[in-house]
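pinned: reference chain
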Amino acid sequence: MARCREILQRHNWDMEVAVQDRFSEQEGTPSVYTQPPREVRTPPVNLNPVDQRIIVIPRGRPQSILQWGYFIVMFPFRFVYTTLMDIFRFAYRLLMPDPRRNVTDPVGDVTRFIQAYNEEYGEVHPVFYQGSYSQVLNTAKNELRFVLVYLHGDDHQDTQQFCRCTLANDAIIEFVNARMLFWACNTNSPEGYRVSQALRENTYPFLAVIVLRENRMTVVARIEGPIGPEQLLERMVRVIDDNETALVAARAERAERTFNQSLRQQQDVAYQESLKVDQEKARKRQAEQEKVEQENREAVEKEEELRRRLEQIKQRKEEITDTIPDEPPCDDPDAIRIMLKLPNGCRLERRFLRTQSLRHLHNYLFCCSDAPDDFQVITNFPRRTLPCQQTDQCPDPPTFADVGLGKSEMLFVQDNEA
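pinned: its structure tokens
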């Protein structure tokens, strides 16, 4: 369960990506989702730690008289052949630059070696990592796993025996696939030659076990010579047991770092949510405060407007008071008696001349303290509104006689603001 959680976290909890990437890993290919578009930089490697295990397997000596005879007969031919090949290679390298020094396609070198290996020795072997040496080191560093590096020498006499017997052994395959990343390359290719120059092997077959220790990839064991499957398995188990504590410590440190990062992210999220809530509260308080201030301003403006309006009405009443004509005597033949009923129930009585304009009636009521400031004068029967006030449509209101009022009339005052 912990392994599954780690894989999902590494792929941002994307199930599809995690499954496809896991299948690619089982096939030995590097992650296509994390693989950079160009060759990644090789992480620093400690090639010679103090406690490095160096395991050299000498070739077996002849046991019987027949084997000694075969060895003695073949030794001159083998010596001459080896000497001539070394002289030829030395002379060739003096005249022609070594093409292996130019690494142009490291991944291609590895995939071509895997294809050639499968054609020559079959597909029964540990899963090859199908990526460059730099990629496998970075993958092992990120996933905290061991790396088993195998340098393949085509011309060595023990290579075929090692590939057909040791690497094809079921126990070796199961152990390496379960505990390690297995990277291999031919030393005749530029990528293999580059790794060979870095690791400085003395003979073949050559194996190196690399693991993260003290934040550096470290070569913790070197195995050289024709080693058998049982002996190889025993040595690798011992090497892994000796260095597993480094991975355990690294995993614990990484888990603590991941936990701290997760905790910090959770704290940041909680802080952001709290900040958002506080900001929302502040925004609401600000909005409420602005609303109250706006209402206060509107109330002040309304009060000021009302005050100005009352002041204007007062001033207008003072101006109109002097324009109201005197009340005619009751025996004047043109006098009419107007009784007015106000909205508050009060009754007024006033005499006007029939020839006078209804404007005087309006001015009289306007200056009356019991009458409303905005009003209409209405007859009872038939019910109609008298045009008493000057307007744009009626700048000169008609007279009492024009609207057909008799000698005595009862009129009603209607408050327009009620």
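why pinned: Confidence is low (pLDDT under 50) at residues 32-38. The CA atoms of residues 165 and 229 lie 7 Å apart.
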